[in-house]
Amino acid sequence: MGRVVVLGSLNVDLVAHVERHPRPGETVLADAAVERFAGGKGGNQAVAAAAAGAEVVMVGAVGDDDGGAAYRARLERLGVDVSAVAVAPAATGQAWIVVDDEGENSIVVVAGANGHVTADLPPLGEGDVLLVQLEVPVSVVARAARAAHSRGARVVVNAAPYAALPHDVAQLADPVVVNEHEAMQLADSDVVAGSLLVTFGAAGCSWDGERFEAAPVAAEDVVDTTGAGDAFCGALAAALAGGADRAEAVRRAAAAGAAAVRHHGAQPDPAL
């Protein structure tokens, strides 16, 4: 079984709950309390991969503040190797998340220490999986992806939030993972993925044109959709590192995504 190396963002999520999202120019009142959770797509996916049974190494950066120290300690408690998580002279990244009564969310991310992430990876080889997202600079993601691929590792790129990938990185990734909105942005670009996995929420996903069903979730069980995509990607990478074929990897990923919408926050028991 190979390792999963996750290069990506580590954020402190500040979450407010509202009855409905405001329209442009409108103010709505949130619940009195703001909750503080562990988040960032990199951290979310690393925790999901570890929960799925993989040996996980996190490559990222936190700030030299209380939030950063708490986050590193949390990852260690959850079995994630944090030896490649740098402590940068900056504030730990933050995400401001607003969740409505239907469980839908909107997110604003402040990069902070995530801008200090480098492409320095631990040793990688065949059977290992590098999992990256785009909340850290694309130039760093590209260098890391090329280095991992040259060492024989599999590269999984979650192109979220969407940004244009270098052509060679899109070609070497297996797969590029996007949701349906990001897939439209990719289609409008001149970048062609060598292997493309598109997620459609409750409608399942498509991997290079082959359709797979989603794990069923009753509407009344949906609490918060914030971390569903990250749980999907983390579990997918763990399954691939364990030697699963596409169908089995997607099945495990879909189950993880379905479980993620049943709890608040992007990670299970995520309070910092």
**SSE run:** EEEHEHEEEEHEHEHEEEHH
Mean pLDDT across the residues is 94
Estimated helix fraction: 25-40%
CA-to-CA gap between the ends?
31 Å
Low-confidence parts, pLDDT < 50 over ≥5 residues?
none
Q: Would you give an account of this structure?
A:
With 272 residues, the protein is an alpha/beta fold. Helices cover 29% and strands 25% of the residues. It has helices at residues 41-51, 66-77, 138-150, 167-172, 180-188, 228-241, 246-260; strands spanning 4-7, 11-17, 35-39, 56-63, 80-88, 93-99, 105-110, 129-132, 154-158, 176-179, 196-199, 205-207, 210-212.
Short characterization:
The chain is an alpha/beta fold.
Topology record:
Elements: E1 4-7, E2 11-17, E3 35-39, H1 41-51, E4 56-63, H2 66-77, E5 80-88, E6 93-99, E7 105-110, E8 129-132, H3 138-150, E9 154-158, H4 167-172, E10 176-179, H5 180-188, E11 196-199, E12 205-207, E13 210-212, H6 228-241, H7 246-260
Parallel strand pairs: 1-4, 1-8, 2-6, 4-5, 8-9, 9-10, 10-11
Antiparallel strand pairs: 2-3, 6-7, 11-12, 12-13
Helix pairs in contact: 1-6, 6-7
Name a few traits of the molecule.
single chain; 272 residues; alpha/beta; 9-stranded mixed sheet; 4-stranded mixed sheet; 13 strands; 29% helix
